[in-house]
Amino acid sequence: MASPITPFKIDIPDSALETLKAKLSLATFPDEVPVSEDWNYGVPVSDLKRLVAHWKDGFDWRASEARLNAELPQFTTPIEVDGFGSLDIHFVHQKSERPGSIPLLFCHGWPGSFLEVSKILPLLTKPEGKDDVSFHVVAPSLPNFGFSSAPSKPGFGIRQYSECLHKLMQRLGYPKYVTQGGDWGFMITRIIGVEYPSHCLASHLNYIRSNRPTLLKHPRQYLNYLLPLSKREKDGLARTEWFHSQGYGYNTEQSTRPATIGAALADSPVALLAWIYEKLHDWTDAYPWTDDEVLTWLSIYQFSTAGPAASVRIYYEAQNTHPAPRHDARAMEYNAKVKLGLSSFPKDLRVFPMCYGRTLGPVVFEGIHDKGGHFAAYEVPELLVGDLRVMFGERGGAGDVARLWRGE
């Protein structure tokens, strides 16, 4: 008997909203001293106070909830993951009306969610140009995130996330598909390409995590690596150095003691707001966040099925689940079986010269942009979609993949 695919609507209980408001009303803030308004120290106290006040008394979650339900066709289905039993997976699924559309798995990371697909969904499924390639889009909430359930025991690493999403695509009737990912979506979709290369025919990445080319493994790219750096490449390496020296503390904490920070995130919506809002500010390219946008983003975590602490466990499990190091290595090794597209944005967290990315596999598309950050699908949706259209277009490097669905 086929497992059910059930339509889903976000419907947060009134009691959860009341509890949130009660906790926000008891918020205690740090003293306002000169350094408290300097972003180098973290979220300014004045910003935190403004957002907390708006979350408590001005922000209309029900309006955001209704909008998300109206704009995003959502579903849940149980997925069996080897060794972990059945997980209830929440996902957005929008089919294009155009014949020959390509099934695309969109994979978010942390601190993102299925919300990141909201701006690119209409562009991918209902393109205006008659020659623009179209997609059937699937955007799951990862286990431990959003409205998906959580594994009941430790050891749920990148391989299990990949298995879960691959099985979701099979459940939806997409035996072959392509992927798009950033942040943890890089790792997860890369392992999908390693584990299921006959199903995953191409991958597009907007977060390029790769090793420096070496003479023995990548002689051609090594020669490119030896060339003088352009200004953009120098700026990208400076951005990467900034991330590792000043923006990496969260990663160390979540990779080593997720339960410690998890206690704060689970109990205090103010802690959750500060922890994630810092990333929304620092990881984007001066994106003009409205307070309602920030609070909608945060509320997906606050009201998540597994609770806001669950999402940070992916960092620990990826580092400590045997055989995690081998799977990390496979994600960053050359995979000749899956065509690869790369898009680089200047305010991402790791911005390497493009020759680094070419060590990952047969690169058939590269997009280099002068604006955009870590959340490209949300910050600069037209640029990301434009790259996908070129990559899978008639003359694109993965045009042959698109022709398979057109029956050519």
Automatic annotation (TrEMBL):
It comes from the Eukaryota. Keywords: Aromatic hydrocarbons catabolism, Hydrolase. Residues 5-117 form the Epoxide hydrolase N-terminal domain. One of its GO terms (molecular function) is epoxide hydrolase activity. InterPro entries: AB_hydrolase_fold, Epox_hydrolase-like, Epoxide_hydro_N, Epoxide_hydrolase. Signal peptide: none annotated. Pfam families: EHN. The active site is at 183 (nucleophile), 315 (proton donor), 374 (proton donor). GO terms for biological process: epoxide metabolic process. PANTHER family: EPOXIDE HYDROLASE, EPOXIDE HYDROLASE 1-RELATED. Belongs to the peptidase S33 family. This is Alpha/Beta hydrolase protein.
